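User: Sequence for ABC transporter related protein below. Tokens please.
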Amino acid sequence: MTDIVFEKATIGYLRTKPLIVDVDLVLKPGLHILLGPNGSGKSALLKTVAGLISPLYGRVLVDGIEPYKERRRKVAAVVGITWQDPYYGFVEPTVRDEVNLILRQLRAQGNMEVADRLVPQQLWDRDPFSLSGGEAKRVSLASVLVADQPVWLLDEPFDNLDLDGVRRVSEIVREGKQRGKNIVVALHNPFYLEVVESDSVLIIDKDRRSLEVFKGGEVDDSVLERYGVLSRRMICR
Ligand SMILES: Nc1ncnc2c1ncn2[C@@H]1O[C@H](COP(=O)(O)OP(=O)(O)OP(=O)(O)O)[C@@H](O)[C@H]1O
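Assistant: Structure tokens for ABC transporter related protein:
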């Protein structure tokens, strides 16, 4: 079981501009939803856990290792991170190559079933950059989740998806949770809070530069609005 541990960790890109300060937190396997206003540091936090940037101070550990100090391949075997902008990670000429890339890099068999569920057959020989936004989102999720790592960091995984896409991704997340994955999902749309039952909701307080931790069912509209996060009643008004 893979814990994510923050030890007095300060998250951000620049020491002169820390985004989230002094985080002390243990995330056990389960589903953790990450919320916060624009520019509060949701992506920065995910990138820190994935070792793409280092904490400005303190430590972040995944399965006992500090990801930013380790070789990329070792970290990629443990942590899968998907991008808010799905086109950002595309480097291969076809969807098939894109989905297989991480398996070649890790020399792993992976879980092709998850890729088949996400990516319709007619897309497999297409150029990833020719895909629609929703198709690209499916491919970008498949190209990471196919590796079946113990930690999934999903930045806006429901963006651009239709009913079928949201159903499939939420099922995969639900199953991942049951299979003991440690899953952190960054979200904007509060309705997706309901899609999968979460174990905790982490909200970045942009003014105090702190990370506030709530239980899954505790976050109502007034809590969201207190932190400048889009609420359900704001959308439905
Ligand atoms: N490489 C970088 N160097 C310096 N600052 C950066 C860098 N990348 C992002 N930032 C800034 O860091 C802040 C946090 O960015 P981040 O992308 O983590 O926010 P976010 O909470 O994911 O935002 P959003 O809700 O808009 O997706 C923003 O003000 C952003 O402009």
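The pocket of adenosine-5'-triphosphate is lined by residues 13-14, 19, 36, 38-44, 84 (CB under 6 Å).
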